Fold:
Amino acid sequence: MLRVEGEDAPNVWTGTDFLHKVNAGESVDVGDKVVVIGGGDTAIDAARVARRLGAEATILYRRTRTEMPAIDEEIVGAEEEGVKIDLLAAPIEIYKKNGKATGMKCQRMELGEPDDSGRRRPVPIEGDTFDVEFTTLIAAISQAPDFTGFDEFIEGRDWIKVDEKQKTKIDGSFSGGDNVNLGLVIDAIFHGRQAASAIHEMISGEPQEFQQPQMGIIKFDKMQLSFYEGIEPVKVTEMAPDARLKDMQAEIAATISQEDALKESKRCMSCGMCFDCGTCWSYCQDNAIVKPFDKGGTYKFKLEFCNGCKKCAENCPCGYIEMH
Ligand SMILES: Cc1cc2nc3c(=O)[nH]c(=O)nc-3n(C[C@H](O)[C@H](O)[C@H](O)COP(=O)(O)OP(=O)(O)OC[C@H]3O[C@@H](n4cnc5c(N)ncnc54)[C@H](O)[C@@H]3O)c2cc1C
Structure:
């Protein structure tokens, strides 16, 4: 919750409670003016659902748009649907009338020094406050899983800790996804795959291959962009904002065809991952690089022949080769 006076009112909800009610098919009356606090995916989803219930929706976020953790396309989608975003603002008091929350006092913020998360800390601008009215307030901040019944797995603020095979501290048990760190669907899927391999290894005794930890994001400065052919991205057909708002179940972005999916995959630049282009091999005059026997196999480096000229690394289009 917000830790703000007045948030116990019945029309102040958490983002997940609100979304759960709507998804469970409950009839939810939010009135005509919803304010959502937060800058993550839950805040965006809550505001977009409020718009579909016919309310005006405003998101209040204490930092700037750059620091919003929500996926950028989702923020754009929300704006297209008429969600307003009021940045650098935070609630400090909720006003109540007859037990219901009717509005709140907000503090204008500015950005200070970066905090532990690396994002610049919001700092109150003294004396700069303003009032906002609403019919429903949704607090979409600070989520955590419900660990009831899983106390023995928890390691303080780290929730459930796991090793690189997703093993927890308790033998024969594995964890992943939001239980170890709130993330994206793709993180949870990756953890699931790693854990499945680890469980198979435990039961069968057969050693499994595990994905290596990532070497970090390869940026354009490590790539040779001229190597790549410029290919336009496939355009996904999207419903017009007005039509989206009329249908809660509408799928906003259409699925792409198999042909388009293949076209999209051809745009992959394989950043940081060898894709067998052979450039390093053709630059090496010392026979220090051995081509793989099979297409797509790994190139081997015979360091005893390498004279350190760096040509392979400098010309590798995808930033795969690093010289130390
Ligand atoms: C509102 C919202 C919007 C989001 N938007 C995005 C987005 O746009 N893109 C994106 O990539 N990610 C998004 N995320 C994050 C993403 O949903 C999660 O990171 C992901 O779902 C985590 O997967 P998981 O399997 O760890 O947990 P979950 O998907 O939560 O699955 C856990 C399952 O376990 C069940 N469960 C819980 N307790 C028990 C129990 N004791 N016994 C049995 N079953 C139990 C739950 O009912 C649930 O079905 C969003 C999250 C939220 C809350």
Q: What stands out?
A: Residues 185-204 form the longest helix (20 residues).
